[in-house]
Write a structure and sequence with these properties.
384 residues, EGF, 4% helix, two-stranded antiparallel ribbon, 34 strands, mainly beta
Length: 384
């Protein structure tokens, strides 16, 4: 009920009005108004906080949130949320919740033995001590991981190809691949040992194969096709051999081929003609080549040919290589052309047997003896 709006103090002589914290006295000396600390700069907000004026005071508000796992307190600071105490964790019954800053961890109730580590599901997984930063084994030994532990094994020198450990097992020495009874290059080839390897000195006609490390035959026929032999090339171990097609023989140079004169060995029954790489049989007139062997000459039966009936006028007789025409046994003789038959005039030639009183009369193939007598009271005036 006094004259002052907020605080009143009676000094005895007069009444003095004052204001609460966060307020200031107006010019009338009675009323109070709020002080805006944010504008006046009298606030104590830290970097990253904004000043918000309130009636009689102010508050500081963070420009960014606290993030997951934290909560904002009244004094505008971030406080870790204890998920385990508040019960907002998601740990399974077999796990124990352990709070961490900004989060929490679920630890299995069952603890793993030494040498194992637990995963998120509580399973015990072996620790590979050999992969740790500090090598567990001393120099010269190899670490071998075991179940729940590890073992150290003494290093054995790893010898490369062409070397092997000495009897003490301390260093690598050269392997003598050429020592008997081994023959790495093959029979007949010379082996020369060298550090960690060997080489082969191959015979002519062979080459050294670096992969199989042996002497391999050179196939001259494939390497030089058509350049070694005239006809056929056949590879042989260490060399090659030339051969010729049928009808040819190898020349003196053992590479070229020359024609064989087959006619010199008389392969045909009659006539032979040599051709390049072969020969041809042919027959004399009146013979023909056999269809069976192409070598033998068979007689042609001219009388049996379709035109055989027209060769001779009377009868045809076949003879080797030719034919003969014949005529009837009497009354005819063979014409000069050897085919036709001519009548023999027995009356002219005088080979008839007519008597003096008979007249000879020639007929085809013979003759007739005609007796010519005149009737009574007539006499002959001439022969007829």
């Amino acid at each position: 009920g006094g004259p002052c709006k907020q605080q009143c103090r009676d000094t005895g002589d007069k009444v003095v009005c004052s204001c609460f914290v966060g307020y200031q006295l107006l010019a009338d000396g009675v009323s109070c108004e709020d002080i805006n600390e944010c504008i006046m700069g009298s606030h104590n907000c830290r970097l990253g906080e904004s000043c918000i004026n309130t009636v009689g005071s102010f508050r500081c508000q963070r420009d960014s949130s606290c993030g997951t796992g934290y909560e904002l307190t009244e004094d505008n600071s971030c406080k870790d949320i204890d998920e385990c105490e508040s019960g907002i964790h998601n740990c399974l019954p077999d796990f124990i919740c352990q709070n961490t800053l900004g989060s929490f961890r679920c630890r299995p109730k069952l603890q793993c033995k030494s040498g194992f580590i637990q995963d998120a599901l509580g399973n015990c997984i072996d620790i590979n001590e050999c992969l740790s930063i500090s090598a567990p084994c001393p120099v010269g030994q190899t670490c071998i991981n075991t179940e729940g532990s590890y073992a150290c094994q003494k290093n054995v020198p790893n010898c490369g190809r062409g070397y092997h450990l000495n009897e003490e097992g301390t260093r690598c020495v050269d392997v003598d691949e050429c020592s008997p009874p081994s023959e790495p290059c093959g029979t007949g080839h010379r082996c020369v040992n060298s550090p960690g390897s060997f080489r082969c000195e191959c015979k002519p006609g062979y080459y050294f194969d670096g992969i199989s490390r042996t002497c391999v035959d050179i196939n001259e026929c494939q390497r030089y096709p058509g350049r070694l032999c005239g006809h056929k090339c056949e590879n042989t171990p260490g060399s090659y051999h030339c051969s010729c097609s049928v009808g040819f023989r190898l020349s003196v140079d053992s590479r070229s081929c020359e024609d064989v004169n087959e006619c010199s060995s008389s392969p045909c029954s009659q006539e032979c003609a040599n051709v390049y790489g072969s020969y041809q049989c042919y027959c004399r007139r009146g013979y023909q080549l056999s269809d069976v062997d192409g070598v033998t000459c068979e007689d042609i039966d001219e009388c049996a040919l379709p035109t055989g009936g027209h060769i001779c006028s009377y009868r045809c007789i076949n003879i080797p290589g030719s034919f003969q025409c014949t005529c009837p046994s009497s009354g005819y003789r063979l014409a000069p052309n050897g085919r036709n038959c001519q009548d023999i005039d027995e009356c002219v030639t005088g080979i008839h047997n007519c008597s003096i009183n008979e007249t000879c009369f020639n007929i085809q193939g013979g003759f007739r003896c005609l007796a010519f007598e005149c009737p009574e009271n007539y006499r002959r005036s001439a022969d007829t």
